[in-house]
Design brief:
This protein is an all-alpha fold and 166 residues long. It has nine helices and no strands. Helix 1 packs antiparallel against helix 2 and helix 5 packs antiparallel against helix 6. The longest helix has 32 residues. The radius of gyration is 19 Å and the shape is globular. The two termini are 30 Å apart.
C-alpha cells in the first residue's frame, strides 16, 4: 500500500503546481515511513516481537542511536552549509542505522526471516478497510481546525496556532 501511495502521489503531484524541489523532498520523506520509529508503520511492526517478550531495551537503544545520529548531523549543519534538503536527507538517513540494527537483532535473537506472500494480501486489505477509514477520519478531524483557520485568516495565523497547540 505504501508503494501504491508513492505512485499515486507522484502521479498527482505532476498535475499540481508543486515544484520539483517539493516533490523531491516529499519522496525522500516517504522513505522515512519505512525507516523511522516515529511513525506507527513498518518499523513499529518489527518491534512487536520485542514488546511481546517485554524486552524493550534494545528497541530503545536503537531509537537512541537514531536520535544521536540526528543530533550530530544537525550540529554539523551550519558547518556544511546545509539547508532544507540537507535537513530532510539527514532526518531520513539518521533512522537507517537503528532500522538495520533492529533487523539484524531480529534475525539473530528470534530467527526472524522476511517472507512476503500475495496469497493473503487481498484478505488483509479487505479486513483493514475499516481501520483505513478510521485513520483518514481521525486525521481529517485533527487537521480541520488548521484548515479552517487557513481559509479564514492566513498561513501566519496557522503557524502561530500550530506552535501554540504543540
Amino acid at each position: 500500500l505504501i508503494l501504491g501511495l508513492f505512485i499515486v502521489f507522484n502521479g498527482i503531484s505532476g498535475l499540481t503546481n508543486l515544484s520539483s524541489r517539493e516533490i523531491f523532498l516529499s519522496n525522500i520523506l516517504f522513505l522515512n515511513i519505512i525507516f523511522s520509529s516515529k511513525y506507527m508503520n513498518f518499523r513499529e511492526l518489527l518491534e512487536v516481537l520485542f514488546k511481546v517478550n517485554l524486552n524493550m531495551f534494545n528497541v530503545m537503544l536503537f531509537n537512541s542511536i537514531d536520535s544521536i545520529f540526528l543530533l550530530v548531523f544537525v550540529f554539523l549543519m551550519p558547518y556544511v552549509g546545509g539547508g532544507l534538503e540537507y535537513l530532510v536527507i539527514v532526518y531520513v538517513a539518521a533512522n537507517i542505522p537503528g532500522f538495520i540494527l533492529l533487523i539484524i537483532f531480529l534475525s539473530k535473537k528470534y530467527r526472524y526471516r522476511f517472507n512476503f506472500s500475495f496469497k493473503y494480501g487481498y484478505w488483509l486489505v479487505k479486513e483493514s478497510i475499516p481501520l483505513f477509514g478510521t485513520v483518514i477520519l481521525t486525521t481529517a478531524f485533527q487537521q480541520l481546525d488548521v484548515l479552517l483557520l487557513r481559509s479564514l485568516d492566513s498561513e501566519y495565523s496557522v503557524g502561530l496556532y500550530s506552535a501554540a497547540l504543540r
